[in-house]
Amino acid sequence: MNVLLVGSGGREHALAIKLSQSPLLEKLYIAPGNPGTEKLGINLSIKTNDDIVNFCISDKIDLVVVGPEVPLVEGIADKLRAHNIPVFGPNADAAMIEGDKSFSKWLMEKYNIPTAGYKAFSKDEYDSSINYLKTHSYPVVIKASGLAAGKGVSICNTFEEAKHIIEDNFNNLIFGHASEKVVVEEFMNGEEASVFAITDGENFVCLPAAQDHKRIGDNDTGKNTGGMGAYAPAPIVTDSLLKKVEYKIIKPTLKGLASEGKKFVGCLYCGLMIENGEPKVVEFNCRFGDPETQVVLPLLEGDFLKLLYSAANGNLDRDAVKFINGSSVCVVAASKGYPDKFEKGFEITGLNNFDNDSEIIIYHSGTKSDGNKILSNGGRVLGVTSVIKENNLKLCKQKAYEAINNIFFENIYYRRDIADKGIK
Length: 424
Description:
Shape: globular
Number of helices: 13
Number of domains: 3
CATH topology of the largest domain: D-amino Acid Aminotransferase, Chain A, domain 1
CATH architecture of the largest domain: 2-Layer Sandwich
Mean pLDDT: 95
Largest sheet: 6 strands, antiparallel
Oligomer: single chain
């Protein structure tokens, strides 16, 4: 089977590793890929949706796996399916569940899916949004409705903070077009977790639950980022709680999307808030999460390619993979200054220390090759990940930090408390 993987980050490196392990695989292409993926397949310097479609036709691609949300929201899956090319990823209409948070909230309200109360405002409703904030309790959550690379969420403790965020979105368009509409939500207490549901639009299978660390600083302080680390499995998601997630959230969401003419095929990412054993939806994403994918996939055994191919073709093979009893912790090595301004182009050393270490995976995220050197080339540079075959997050965290302490590039920055919530 010839497979094309779309994307260039740590998530795609993790997907490439898992796809490359399938006995069904003949050739793996990654567009555009990164220095990590080039060891697993062939990196392609094609980026536009039209170029991808043309490549798939000319090179007889049997399956396309789309990593990032932007091409999905822009309709890459629609174009591929129009040419009868199987694709793991939702059409643009279904991808609205991430691409338009106001639609996502409307869907949850209509189909009685548990989530925070909300109200949506467009740019021309500035006065109404401010009046609404004057009557709201605090803290309050304000989200840019469109795609903002995981950074469009603000928790505001006072009216003044909330007003400033509204003005930043509507007047300054701090997240571009994503800021032209905002969602104002009730603040939810509890602990967050992420669950991936692999679905053919009707049937689904859940992968091990994970927990992401969004804030830049230890103890969840500072600005939101694309994710500073993750661990799996998340102990807070017990078997009984997962059944509630499946029954109260995933099933009605897939049924609701189908009823609205937006059948969802791909990975439905359920970002959850859990309080007193009850789950509510914080957000949905239309693809695998980053960096959660980096800790979830190493805990699977079986044929991951077979799972995705069966979903893409409308006949999900629920038995293609299963969860092994293990633990995984990913610590993101970022560039100091991220998620704001940062410098890049620094040589990374120490990567070869783990070539023969079966318990350490170094995922490339924001890197580039320069001859025989690997340079930093983004805000999130590496995902230093430990994987052990026992349920022991404490030991797993220890191994991850031992590894990251042996990697260096100028201005390296990382959190020191990844997985502490799960350990407690």
